[in-house]
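EI: anyone free to look at a 205-residue chain?
SC: sure, send it
EI:
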Amino acid sequence: MFTGLIEDIGIVKNVLNSKIEVETKLCDIAKGDSVAINGVCLTVTSLKRDILTADYSQITDKTTTLSKLKKNSKVNLERALKLLSRFGGHIVSGHVEGTAKIEKIEKIARFYNVVFSCNENITEYCVSKGSIAVDGISLTLSLVFPLKFEIFVIPETFNNTVLQFKKVGDEVNIETDTLAKYVKKIVNRKKDDISLEFLKGNGFV
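SC: here you go
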């Protein structure tokens, strides 16, 4: 479990055969630990000096941008949440649902307005003022449309994450709010349970 508060910007040393190696300044990482790399929860398979290695599956390859990273690409890193830690950001599982493409980056005063285009399977779980994880960064949605969404980024977040290196056309990993997914499933199940016979039997018809 993660919070979407980025701890370090790592540097990719190698991406090959579903394996990624990242240089990091983070300490207190051991083999078997969970680390979010650009929002993707991965298990550390080895740690030599300051380079961590992790494997990722074919499903992860298809739904994330990991395999598109190159040597010296910069990535967001976050260690898994400790039970006694303060809980900033929002609940982030590291289970990326898909990607979005940056349509616009506009600096407004000290802030940054960023617009993303994506598939409906992303926006159906998005609401204005709700939470979303973009490359593992906990952000607040300002506007949501059928196939795009917009966020405003504060300088602290922009300058301490890989957002500062992004440009129009770049793809990012997206994880929507976990709670929204559970709510939708429950609501849909309730709808399926309501039939004409149910309404008649309970005096509604």
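EI: The first strand starts at residue 8 and ends at 16.
SC: 👍
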